[in-house]
Design a protein that fits this description.
CATH superfamily of the largest domain in chain B: MetI-like
Chains: A alpha/beta (about 350), B mainly alpha (about 325), C alpha/beta (about 325), D alpha+beta (about 525), E mainly alpha (about 300)
CATH superfamily of the largest domain in chain E: MetI-like
Shape of chain E: flat
CATH architecture of the largest domain in chain B: Orthogonal Bundle
Bound molecules: adenosine-5'-triphosphate, magnesium ion
Number of domains of chain B: 2
Shape of chain B: globular
Helix content of chain E: over 70%
Number of helices of chain E: 15
Structural class of chain B: mainly alpha
CATH topology of the largest domain in chain E: MetI-like fold
Number of strands of chain E: 0
Largest interface: B-E, 62 and 54 residues
Distance between the termini of chain B: 15 Å
Oligomer: heteropentamer
Largest sheet of chain E: none
Structural class of chain E: mainly alpha
Radius of gyration of chain E: 26 Å
Largest sheet of chain B: none
């Protein structure tokens, strides 16, 4: 993790939701970085703050979300300190974004052409004709016939729309593309196609990706490194394979155990007991304590923080304060018997 | 174009219903127009004379169904009968003369309300919770909940009578003859200010609030966020991404609003002695000029249908999902 | 194996999708679909969105009426359950769990209402026993403490808890057949298994016949003994779950299984080999195999006629000319 | 503009409408312009009601009844020309009377049935032979428009003809300009009496409501109006002192009860003279005049309802005997009723008839006649003070007329005809043959003796006898309290002194000064005006 | 009841409610507030406001305040009565069309749409004129019978949306009869929309009644705000300068309208939380402003530092 090479560096990011009921810290002290060309995944169950992190990078939050602390360094510059003009220029040109569902991220009343042109012409000093020819190239890249530029979004199928969005994200050749659950609304077959396409494009253009999903299997398949979030905190960061094979945080383990396997013997899986944390009632100590099999006294009092427990493998869990062993199934069943 | 066809079919049906209502109403009512018209002089008239008058005014006797068909056939020939009060003027002539003024008054007032209301609505939504929103939005709603009659009387009283800043009657100064000259047009405009403003102010909330609410809902849509993420200017996101979509439901209410305004403008016309359909109807009602009343209701319905049709077309133009066979 | 409690034979279902004047256009949502449900077993139905999975369940739940074919409940045509009483009798045996835990509970009523209504409606319990029974059922589905939960409104529960209430309603009716339409697709990954496990328990303990609709093949394998793969209103392959998933015979099943995320491999490990065609809109006039447009083994025959059902084994069927 | 300033234009409001239609057909009742009669079509004679029906000869130079009173002869003026230059002659007059016989619609005065024949005798005498004797008929005959034969004989359908460029014998025949909001009608180039005419044009701005009229008047835009202006001293005169007004008395208006009321209790009360007198005594006539009439009206305490207009016909004996019942006297009314046996027997807070029947009635007034509604409300207030269950109801005019004609109502407030003599008032209001003809005789009280008295009036041309008849009529009605006289209305008339002089006024009471078209005297008025 | 609590918790709604309640109390308890009868002459005509007649008198010498208070009874009764009729009809038509769909819906929606394109006020005027001497009750009934279409359409749309909710399907599968589904499952979910429609209908009815009566189509002997306006205009109060007679009913109508409108605004916010501008938003704006300040200060100091020559 060399500081110099990082394209994006998020340091101690805190985001609050300011509501009538009180301030909710939806993202708490999150730090990670993404190297050029890297695919970094953020996983975690719904409401853990993944999208909130993603929105912070382009500063897209609107009320009640409020970035209260931290830095987002992009190529060494703090995005959070940008003026409105700087921000406008930064967005999309440096960092573009694919949203949760393609159905809703294209403007239904504008022709696709317009949605390409406006972004191209807003950032680059080109004529409309040039913008259109660029848009046609982009459509070619995602295997959509350029003639369809004059169509409206509703005339495309879900998968095609998602590819359109991807084409738009590529328009300015950004260095980073944030993908917030880009395929959740799609069928597995379409999902796979799109991810393959993205991967090809990444190889071709060399951008980095921040990839968000709660499908751990998919993430492991697609990402280089993965961060696992729980209740607004980053609880584990590690290379994809190692997080899958040897999770160091009980939550990561539980998440892994929530996906029944396609192969092998059928056995009863338990998932993670209890409910996700209500952010209005954050306990003292570890946030995962109420659902954790390994909870001990320390967890109730002392907050956790990310520590590099193995090479490139960071986790925030008191269980590892002494031992470094990954969680194993035997251990879990042992704990249960106690 | 199935959409348009469907609408046209509906309009025809609506029009027929209006025709039936129109036909039935006066026939359900007591008294007859000739007696009403003759008023105090009835004593001097012989039965023959009243009958003769009845004939001249075109009252058909005979079975109801026969009356109905003769009514329908004349309606479709554009013959709405003869006004009793303005005999021998035909209803069509009278309405034709007034039609343009009402079109102008309601059109200008509502269009203005639509444009200004929508813009203010967008601004209010964009700065939701700010001072602008928390003053303008409830205020416009309050204005909307106040009868046009109140504003009409108030404006008339303040600007027309007390301050005498603006003319408080007529469509143009009586001395002028209608012509296409700057003098005449500016005169018409001056005379239109108070009534148009009355129509405008009451309509404002009707467009502002829905626009604001639509827009607030829309601001949570992904494509708005995407617009912002694309680094487009605020204005562009606000108009091209927000307003373009938020305006759609408003277009529907535009056509509805016109319905209200046609009724409302009536009161305004009466208050400001504006020579539109409203004044005609009002006087026709006072004079119990049944033929004129009937024709009027029909024309007003046509008016509504026309505006609805315009709104449909506008909708089609604004929402591509309709044109291309989507379902919206 | 004992006789099926639900047996669907050759169901066809058309929906009117648009009408222009007198001209009606319809689509065929289900075409010649047959399956059986057995007590103590689950049938998973998988397929992409719009393939007709929910329609199958809705026909069995008598929310839609099939245009052709028949559904038998204990050998009786379900259309024979006519009139208020007979219909209630059928409904007390066949119940459904819906996809959306937020939408399937009425926000204005308490949990108590939701569980008590089926009890009252199907005369399962008298009024004074009601409270105890409701609480008993809520405990059964793991909603502890039951008396407290009963007083709550849906919005005061988490998604998983709500789905448990939905299952509790099924228990309250005492149905023998449970049709679960994507019961976990809107739930958090960490909670999904809890619900699946609860369904599994009910299936084995209460000897329920279950239909489990999902697009997640992995959970289908986890819960169901049998699986049916649907594509554009057709059941293209069905049979024993492991058999179908591990040895898919239909090109579509093969494509589907290969697309399932697999942490053991990388996404760039290969591309899906099939040529991407549009998913067709199936109408009563459409002909051939619905997958023909995307199938790499397509032949002229596939475009002309619907392949017949081929029994590969006693518990594995496929609808493909490759096997006939 | 300078041109307009040079010619003298008299601005008048002779009708209130929302738009002008160019229509000068004198036969149309509804929509001819109000400047058609008299100003375009000069009458034969103008009878001056204010001066005891004095005749001002116009197109005729004399008129007289034959001895049997069955023929009336008009001598036609020589040297009159139509405004297109054609000669006017007795033939045109004859033609005009033939016109009204042709089509009942043209017969706006309902004369066709009463005229036997019309003929020309000699050069210039038109003789009209009547079917029955009627000495009051000349008033009607002179209201028949005299039209040019050479024009109208070309018209196929006189009932729909709009006569946009009229040809007449009157002072203002030339339509100078015409829009829906304003028209100007200028002098007849061939007017026979041009030397008496000092005004060049009439200007008719379109005005729809009294409020608009008032606004224009305050600005000094109008010269001659006859509209209702509330609180005129404060609102108009103080704002524009060049305005004046004169409100001479006009017809009377009364409450009336239906002797044939469908409700037995009410009928019993209404047929009791004590009740009618008590009713009359509860009407606060002064309040009616002050409030409903803005002080313009005058109280009507003539027991017969004769009214100020016909003061010269008054029978003082009537007032001496029955006047006490026609003055506001609540206590007296209460006394009268309790003496007659009216008590609240059923304890509902309202009086019952001596036989114990329920009295409960509505006073009907036409919808929209707001001064009458106010009057009725004041009357009802008095009845309620008296303990009578009465209220006001405002049905549609048509409904009201039907109900009154068919005796399907209890009580009403109604106005009456005026005229040159009280004849028309008594004939339409009290002759039993009129009871089901219109709302005026709707008390449905039949008195054969009264009928014959009324009838005898038209059978004589002797004015002393006529006065005697009238006095007898008054006595019969007063003694019976057939009606409950309330007030006399007025002729509304305002004028602007600034641009013209010669206005009729209280100081110069030449004739009824009203500008409305049914007032032929306005021709005399316009001829009397001089530009300043 | 939740709904009521929410309503009371909203500032706009509370203000609106207070205004409306004020007028309700004023008119219901009119005899407590005014010793004068609204239909009796109690003074000289057109007296300007004084201690004795706090809002002056009319041409008829009646007390304006008494008329305002008593007139409120009828005007509000017509408003709420017609509003109730509108809402009952709208619920009937809207829910039936929305729930049953198909042909039923087609027929009922066509009826609604046709009602909507026939201009309201003119139709009402014609009806009122034809019926003649339209008493407030008659006016309320004809308003009710001709104004339901818009609300019905809104309710229909919402019913259709709710009908698609799975809890309705669940109730159907459970075997609940249609009437129970409509009344117990769907109707309670429509409360806020019905509330909004009802308030809207009340506003509309009050306005319409006043307008009709002002135009002279009502019963002039009734005491209502509309008739006050009618009498005012009949007696040229504006020109005479009897402003009190003009202002009093105008303000009353406008205030009640405003109060109801505020309540409606609040109902909208309650039904759609996204519309609420909560206190959190204020704090957010405050924080954002602070942050901007700090940032700018930081930049300035940075710029200054750079200017310092080394
Ligand atoms: N507008 C809001 N007001 C209040 N709290 C909010 C708001 N938006 C999000 N939150 C809270 O912030 C937390 C994080 O939300 P976020 O959308 O980042 O989650 P996520 O991980 O992206 O979830 P998902 O997988 O469902 O998209 C959640 O607990 C949520 O309750
Ligand atoms: N009521 C209906 N009217 C018309 N078409 C319908 C109706 N219900 C379903 N359809 C159509 O039938 C087809 C099958 O729908 P169905 O809901 O059964 O799909 P599904 O497999 O359950 O999809 P999903 O996974 O999205 O739930 C779809 O194309 C759908 O559009
Ligand atoms: Mg998210
Ligand atoms: Mg489905």
């Amino acid at each position: 993790m060399s500081q110099q090479s990082a394209l994006l560096q998020v340091n101690n990011l805190c985001v609050d939701y300011i509501t009538d009921a009180g301030d909710v810290r939806a993202v708490s002290d999150v730090s990670f970085e993404i190297a050029p060309g890297e695919v970094f995944g953020l996983a975690g169950e719904s409401g853990c703050g993944k999208s909130t992190v993603a929105f912070s990078i382009s500063r897209l939050h609107k009320p009640p979300a409020f970035i209260s602390e931290g830095e987002v360094l992009f190529d060494g510059k703090d995005v959070l300190a940008f003026s409105d003009q700087e921000l406008q220029a930064f967005r999309w040109a440096q960092c573009s974004m694919v949203f949760q569902s393609a159905m809703n991220s294209l403007n239904p009343v504008l022709r696709v052409e317009e949605q390409f042109c406006d972004v191209l012409m807003a950032h680059e000093d080109i004529s409309r004709a040039q913008a259109i020819s660029r848009a046609k190239e982009l459509l070619n890249i995602v295997d959509i016939h350029p003639d369809r530029l004059r169509d409206y979004p509703h005339q495309f199928s879900g998968g095609m729309r998602q590819r359109l969005v991807i084409a738009i994200t590529l328009a300015l050749k950004p260095k980073l593309i944030v993908m917030d659950e880009p395929t959740t609304a799609l069928d597995v077959v379409v999902q796979r196609e799109i991810l393959q396409k993205i991967y090809q494009l990444k190889e071709q253009f060399g951008f980095s990706i921040l990839f968000i999903t709660h499908d751990l299997s998919l993430m492991v398949e697609f990402c280089d490194r993965i961060g696992i979030m729980y209740a607004g905190e980053l609880v584990e960061v590690a290379p994809a394979k190692s997080i899958f094979k040897q999770p160091l945080h009980p939550y990561t383990y539980g998440l892994g155990q929530s996906f029944p396997p396609m192969l092998g013997p059928k056995k009863r899986l338990e998932g993670i007991p209890g409910h996700p944390l209500n952010l209005l009632e954050v306990p003292e100590g570890c946030r995962f304590q109420s659902r954790c099999e390994f909870k001990h006294a320390r967890c109730e009092r002392v907050a956790t923080s990310l520590k590099e427990l193995q090479h490139q493998h960071w986790a925030a869990c008191h269980r590892h304060d002494s031992a470094l062993a990954p969680i194993t199934a035997e251990e879990v069943s042992l704990c249960k018997q106690q | 174009m199935g959409f348009i066809l469907r609408r046209l079919f509906f309009y025809l049906a609506a029009f027929m219903v209006a025709v039936v209502i129109n036909f039935m109403l006066p026939r359900l009512m007591p008294g007859d127009p000739v007696t009403a018209m003759l008023g105090g002089r009835g004593a001097m008239m012989t039965y023959d004379q009243i009958e003769a008058l009845r004939q001249t005014f075109g009252f058909v006797d005979g079975p109801l169904i026969q009356q109905f068909f003769s009514y329908v056939s004349s309606v479709f020939q554009g013959d709405l009968g003869t006004s009793v009060q303005s005999f021998p003027e035909t209803v069509s002539t009278i309405l034709g003369r007034a039609f343009g003024w009402t079109l102008f008054l309601t059109g200008a007032g509502t269009l203005l309300a639509f444009i200004v209301g929508s813009l203010l609505g967008i601004l209010a939504a964009w700065n939701r919770g700010g001072w602008f929103d928390s003053i303008v939005s409830p205020l416009s709603l309050i204005l909307q909940a106040t009868p046009q009659l109140v504003f009409g009387l108030l404006f008339m009283f303040v600007f027309g009578v007390t301050l005498q800043w603006l003319p408080s009657g007529y469509a143009f100064s009586p001395e002028l003859t209608p012509e296409f000259s700057w003098l005449f047009i500016s005169d018409v405009a001056a005379h239109a200010i108070l009534p148009v403003f009355t129509v405008f102010i009451v309509q404002l909330g009707g467009f502002l609030i829905p626009m604001r609410n639509n827009m607030i809902n829309l601001l949570n849509e992904d494509y708005i966020t995407m617009g912002k993420a694309k680094g487009l200017s605020q204005l562009r996101v606000m108009l091209n991404y927000g307003a373009r979509n938020a305006v759609l439901p408003s277009v529907t209410s535009l056509s509805m609003a016109l319905g209200m305004v046609i009724g409302g403008a009536m009161v305004v016309e009466v208050i400001f002695n504006y020579p539109g359909l409203g004044t005609v109807l009002y006087n026709a009602i006072l004079a119990r000029d049944y033929q004129l009343i009937q024709g009027q209701l029909l024309v007003m319905t046509l008016f509504m249908l026309f505006f609805n049709f315009m709104a449909d077309i506008l909708y089609l133009f604004l929402d591509p999902r309709l044109k291309h066979g989507g379902s919206a | 194996m004992q006789t099926a409690i639900i047996e669907a034979n050759n169901i066809v279902k058309d929906f009117e999708i648009s009408r222009q004047g007198l001209q009606r256009k319809s689509m065929r949502a289900l075409n010649d679909v047959s399956f059986k449900l057995h007590k103590g077993r689950a049938l998973a139905i998988v397929g992409e969105s719009g393939s007709g999975k929910s329609t199958v369940a809705k026909i069995v739940a008598k929310m839609h009426k099939a245009n052709a074919g028949q559904v038998l409940f204990n050998q009786r045509d379900i259309n024979e359950f006519k009139g208020r009483k007979a219909e209630l009798e059928y409904r007390s045996n066949v119940q459904m769990v819906f996809q959306d835990p937020f939408g399937s509970l009425n926000p204005v009523h308490t949990i108590f209402h939701h569980v008590a209504r089926p009890l009252l409606l199907h005369n399962k319990f008298s009024k004074h026993e009601l409270r105890d029974k409701v609480e008993f059922i809520l405990e059964q589905v793991g909603l502890n403490p039951a008396s407290e939960t009963a007083q709550k409104y849906p919005h005061q529960l988490s998604g998983g808890q709500r789905q448990r209430v939905n299952i509790a309603r099924n228990l309250a009716v005492g149905a023998q057949v449970m049709l679960a339409d994507e019961p976990t697709s809107m739930l958090d990954v960490s909670i999904r298994l809890g619900i699946l496990n609860l369904m599994e328990e009910m299936k084995s303990e209460q000897d329920l016949a279950m239909m489990y609709i999902t697009h997640d093949i992995a959970t289908a394998r986890y819960l169901a003994e049998d699986i049916g793969v649907m594509y554009v209103g057709h059941m293209l392959e069905w049979g024993d779950t492991d058999e179908v998933i591990h040895h898919p015979q239909h090109p579509y099943t093969q494509l589907l299984v290969s697309a399932v995320p697999n942490p053991e491999q990388s996404i760039h490990g290969g591309t899906l080999a099939e040529e991407r065609g549009e998913i067709p809109l199936w109408t009563p006039h459409s002909r051939g195999c619905p997958f023909a447009g995307r199938c790499k083994h397509v032949s002229e025959q596939c475009r002309q006629q619907l392949p017949p059902v081929v029994a590969l084994s006693e518990r594995h069927f496929v609808r493909c000319f490759l096997h006939s | 503009d300078s041109l307009a300033a040079e010619r003298s234009e008299l601005t008048l409001v002779a009708e209130q409408r929302t738009a002008w239609d160019r229509n000068f057909n004198p036969y149309l009742t509804a929509n001819k312009r109000a400047t058609t009669f008299q100003f375009i079509y000069e009458p034969l004679v103008v009878f001056n009601a204010l001066k005891g029906n004095q005749a001002h000869y116009r197109l005729a130079t004399a008129h007289e009844f034959s001895d049997d009173l069955k023929t009336i002869r008009f001598t036609i003026r020589d040297g009159v020309k139509w405004s297109d230059g054609e000669q006017f002659s007795a033939k045109d007059v004859l033609y005009s009377f033939e016109q009204i016989k042709k089509d009942p619609v043209l017969d706006t005065q309902a004369l066709a049935d009463r005229i036997e024949s019309v003929s020309i005798e000699g050069e210039n005498v038109v003789a009209i032979k009547l079917k029955n004797v009627d000495t009051t008929i000349a008033n009607k005959i002179v209201r028949v428009p005299i039209v040019p034969q050479h024009i109208w004989s070309q018209i196929d359908s006189p009932t729909t003809f709009k006569n946009e460029t009229p040809v007449g014998t009157g002072p203002f025949t030339e339509i100078d300009s015409f829009t829906a909001q304003l028209y100007v009608q200028c002098a007849n180039p061939h007017y026979y009496d041009a030397e008496n005419l000092d005004i060049d044009c009439l200007k008719m701005p379109q005005i729809a409501t009294n409020d608009q009229l008032l606004a224009a008047a305050i600005k000094g835009e109008l010269d001659w109006t006859s509209s209702f202006i509330p609180d005129i001293d404060r609102v108009l005169i103080s704002a524009n002192p060049s305005y004046n007004y004169w409100y001479p008395a006009a017809g009377s208006a009364s409450f009336l009860v239906n002797f044939k009321s469908p409700n037995p209790g009410n009928r019993e009360a209404f047929n009791d003279i004590n009740f009618r007198r008590a009713f009359s005594m509860t009407v606060d006539r002064q309040a009616v005049v002050d409030i409903a009439g803005y002080g313009y009206w005058s109280t009507n305490q003539y027991a017969s309802g004769l009214g100020e207009q016909f003061a010269s016909w008054n029978n003082p004996q009537v007032d001496a005997e029955f006047g006490q019942y026609n003055r506001y006297d609540l206590e007296g009314a209460k006394q009268l009723l309790s003496d007659a046996g009216y008590k609240d027997t059923d304890g509902d807070g309202f009086l019952n008839t001596p036989s114990g029947a329920e009295i409960s009635f509505k006073v009907i007034v036409p919808n929209g006649w707001s001064d009458f509604v106010s009057t009725a409300q004041i009357g009802v207030e008095g009845l309620q003070e008296l303990g009578v269950d009465a209220s006001v109801s405002t049905p549609e005019f048509v409904t009201l007329t039907e109900n009154m004609k068919s005796a399907d109502f209890d009580a009403a407030f109604t106005n009456y005809f005026g005229g040159a003599t009280p004849y028309r008032y008594f004939q339409t209001g009290f002759h039993s043959s009129m009871a089901d003809k219109d709302r005026f005789g709707a008390h449905h009280y039949a008195d054969p003796e009264l009928d014959s008295l009324i009838d005898s009036f038209t059978k004589t041309a002797d004015s002393a006898e006529q006065v005697k008849i009238m006095q007898d009529i008054q006595y019969r009605i007063g003694a019976n309290q057939t009606t409950i006289p309330t007030m006399s209305t007025v002729y509304l008339y305002q004028f602007n002194d600034k641009r013209f002089s010669g206005w009729f006024s209280e100081a110069n009471p030449q004739a009824v000064p009203v500008v409305w078209p049914d007032q032929p005297e306005r021709l005399l008025h316009v001829l009397a005006l001089k530009p300043r | 009841m939740n709904f009521l609590k929410l309503l009371l918790g909203n500032r706009k709604a509370s203000i609106g409610l207070v205004i409306v309640l004020f007028f309700v109390v004023l008119s219901v308890a009119a005899p407590l507030f005014s010793d004068y009868s609204p239909t009796k002459r109690v003074s000289r005509p057109h007296q300007s406001p004084s201690a004795e007649h706090i809002m002056g008198t009319t041409r008829m010498g009646r007390d304006v305040f008494a008329q305002l208070a008593y007139g409120g009874r009828t005007s509000l009764a017509v408003g709420f009565g017609a509003g109730a009729l509108v809402i009952v009809l709208a619920i009937g038509f809207g829910i039936t069309a929305g729930y049953f769909g198909g042909v039923v819906d087609e027929v009922l929606s066509s009826m609604m749409n046709i009602m909507l394109v026939i201009p309201q006020l003119p139709l009402l005027m014609v009806l009122a004129a034809f019926i003649g001497e339209a008493s407030p009750l008659v006016i309320a009934i004809i308003i009710g019978c001709t104004s339901w279409a818009w609300s019905a359409r809104v309710i229909r749309a919402q019913t259709m949306a709710i009908r698609e909710k799975e809890f309705v399907s669940a109730a159907q599968v459970l075997g609940e009869p249609a009437w129970r589904i409509i009344l117990v499952e769907i109707l309670p979910n429509l409360i806020s929309i019905i509330g909004a429609a009802f308030i809207g209908a009340v506003i509309y009815s009050i306005m319409l009644e006043a307008t009709l009566e002002f135009l002279g189509l009502g019963d002039p002997t009734a005491v209502t705000w509309g008739i006050m306006l009618y009498n005012m205009s009949n007696t040229s109060a504006i020109l005479i300068g009897a402003w009190w007679e003009v202002i009093a009913p105008c303000i009353a109508i406008a205030m009640v309208g405003a109060g109801l409108a505020l309540m409606n605004f609040a109902v909208d916010e309650i039904a759609n939380p996204a519309l609420r501008s909560h206190t959190g938003l204020k704090r957010w704006k405050l924080k954002q402003a602070q942050r901007k300040k700090i940032l700018e200060a930081g930049k300035q100091s940075l710029a200054k530092q750079q200017q310092v020559p080394l």
